[in-house]
UniProtKB/TrEMBL annotation:
Belongs to the methyltransferase superfamily. One of its GO terms (molecular function) is methyltransferase activity. This is Methyltransferase. One of its GO terms (cellular component) is trans-Golgi network. It is an enzyme of class 2 (transferase). The keyword Transmembrane applies. The keyword Phosphoprotein does not apply.
Length: 578
């Protein structure tokens, strides 16, 4: 009976007492501390930058790995131990580790013919669309049933690209195995084959003495050297020598060209380490906000500026900053000298130039100079006079569109995008920008004016401090970040204000800042006002770039951004499952 009574205690008797609870807690704590001491002691993220900012994505991921590993691996994974290894390891010795890992979706390699696959600019699919105005070369993404579920392979013989600045002048032939431009542009000094390499002499159709000398000529006409010009757009960029030679002058050029069936202009640009994206002036707006660029450039880019009621020049006007410059070289400029070489009549070329001059005048642009093969126009700093001129010049009218920054499949319109209101003829509409590099950290005018709803100066300043601290932490745990020739082309998938790129501005690399079209997609204009570059992007679709073009991809809060949006549909989230 006595034993039976002990087996059936009352509920009150079974309830633990306070001393018992304290004893259990002390024993658990002692066991935990002993385990931590045994496996290397306590660690903490570097405190550079100080303050109570939240830990960086890298520190969060690292802390999680420490918390979840077994005792046999904790000493390897901890933050304060050996440097984290971000290199790929695919040796046979890894088989056991792979087998022990949790089951995950495995993707096979795509057939070799897809080594340069660009989902939304697929050459075969594009033929279904109208050829008028090159609409077939715009973005046309695959339907759900057409999407590839395989890994794009590298071409045979692919090698790690040369680091910048060597990459400006040389690239491996196997990485972009296309000889067409070496034949077509042989006499124009664009690109040559030299054994297993391509060499880029820096020449161009309209700059036979090299891009450097050509830029020097432009610099005699507009201020390229005082920091007032930082962002540039190169339309129909060729192999992007103009943008490549501007980088050393602290001018960041966004180059674009359409996806050709064989020429691979943008692929060459990115292989050289120059910012570029696949794009074309056709029917949709270029995927940049209004007032983005300090100058735009066309060197024999073959864009018919005078056609379609000047629609393409009107689009350039939308994305040019108040007081920005448009540079044109090649046909029809200096037609009296080049008409025979261009195999066009003098009358035809003269008519084309007069038509371009007329469109520029209707946009209230001022022609600054025409010297030799180069002509330059300047956009007004405000629209006070231009609006008054509409009483006489009826076309094009001012747009009534409420969102001049909208540029994701939005159609171009034959109307002038109005600048923000100005009260004085000398005032710069929307606010004057600081010169580079001061504009990188200065409060962007769009935020200072309160034109971005819900964004304050305090938010911007805190974001700048936070990313300076986070990037410092990245460098402390990713040893490759400290190597000057390791990373050149970087991509930020959710750039917000461009804080990640701003924190890296002093390093020999550039960042393509992508602002997702879901959420607060109004911040791309802020990024450009900081002297950085970027693009809109819906990450449920393919990006307008080639495979293997970025050295490092940075993603902060991308999945959560989409998960909380209406864009989170089965066709989108399938790509995140693994």
């Amino acid at each position: 009976m006595a034993v039976g009574a002990k087996l059936h205690l009352s509920p009150a008797a079974r309830r633990p007492t306070l001393p018992q609870l304290l004893a259990v807690a002390l024993l658990c704590s002692a066991s935990y501390l002993a385990g931590v001491w045994h496996h290397g002691g306590f660690t903490a993220a570097p405190a550079a930058g100080g303050g109570g900012a939240s830990p960086s994505p890298v520190s969060i991921a690292t802390a999680a790995s420490v918390a979840c590993v077994s005792p046999t691996t904790a000493g390897v994974a901890r933050v304060g131990g050996a440097p984290l290894d971000f290199e790929a390891h695919h040796a046979a010795d890894d088989t056991e580790a792979v087998n022990a890992a949790p089951a995950r979706r495995a993707y096979e390699a795509c057939p070799a013919k897809y080594s340069e696959y660009t989902p939304c600019e697929d050459v075969e699919r594009s033929l279904r669309f109208p050829r008028d105005r090159l609409v077939y070369r715009e973005r046309h993404c695959p339907a759900e049933g057409e999407r590839l579920r395989c890994l794009v392979p590298a071409p045979k013989g692919y090698r790690t690209p040369f680091p910048w600045p060597t990459s400006r002048d040389v690239a491996w032939f196997a990485n972009v195995p296309h000889k067409e431009l070496t034949v077509e542009k042989a006499v124009q000094n664009w690109i040559h084959v030299d054994g297993d390499k391509f060499r880029f002499p820096g020449g161009g159709t309209m700059f036979p003495h090299g891009a450097g000398a050509y830029i020097d000529d432009i610099g005699k006409l507009i201020p390229l050297h005082d920091g007032s010009i930082r962002t540039a757009l190169d339309t129909g960029c060729g192999v992007a020598s103009w943008g490549a030679y501007l980088l050393s002058r602290n001018i960041l050029a966004m180059s674009f060209a359409p996806r050709d069936s064989h020429e691979a202009q943008v692929q060459f640009a990115l292989e050289r380490g120059v910012p570029a994206m696949i794009g074309v002036l056709a029917s949709n707006r270029l995927t940049y906000p209004a007032r983005a660029f300090d100058m735009a450039h066309c060197s024999r880019c073959l864009i018919p500026w005078q056609l379609y009621d000047g629609l393409y020049l009107i689009e350039v006007d939308r994305i040019l900053r108040p007081g920005g410059y448009w540079i044109l070289s090649g046909p029809p400029i200096n037609w009296k000298k080049h008409s025979k070489g261009w195999q066009r009549t003098r009358e035809d070329l003269n008519a084309e130039q007069q038509a371009i001059e007329s469109v520029a005048k209707s946009l209230c642009w001022k022609k600054i100079k025409e010297v030799g093969d180069i002509a330059i126009w300047q956009k007004p700093t405000n629209h006070i006079h231009c609006k008054a001129s509409r009483r006489v010049i009826k076309s094009p009218p001012f747009c009534s569109n409420k969102n001049p920054d909208a540029a994701w499949y939005d159609k171009m319109e034959a109307c002038i995008t109005p600048l923000p209101e100005a009260s004085d003829i000398k005032e710069v509409a929307g606010g004057e920008l600081k010169k580079w590099p001061q504009r990188l950290t200065a409060l962007p005018p769009r935020i200072a004016s309160g034109s971005i709803e819900g964004v304050t100066a305090e938010m911007f300043n805190e974001d700048t401090k936070l990313w300076k601290k986070r990037v410092g932490h990245y460098k402390s745990v990713i040893s490759q970040f400290g190597q000057k020739d390791r990373y050149g082309n970087l991509l930020d998938m959710n750039a917000r204000f461009g804080g990640f790129a701003a924190a890296l501005a002093g390093d020999p690399m550039w960042v393509m800042n992508m602002v997702p079209t879901v959420g607060n997609s109004t911040t791309l204009g802020v990024i450009y006002e900081r002297g950085l570059i970027g693009n809109y992007q819906d990450w449920c679709e393919g990006m307008s770039t080639y495979p293997r073009t970025y050295d490092l991809i940075h993603a902060d809060s991308v999945f959560s951004l989409y998960k909380d949006s209406a864009r989170w549909t089965p066709s989108c989230w399938k790509w995140t499952e693994s």
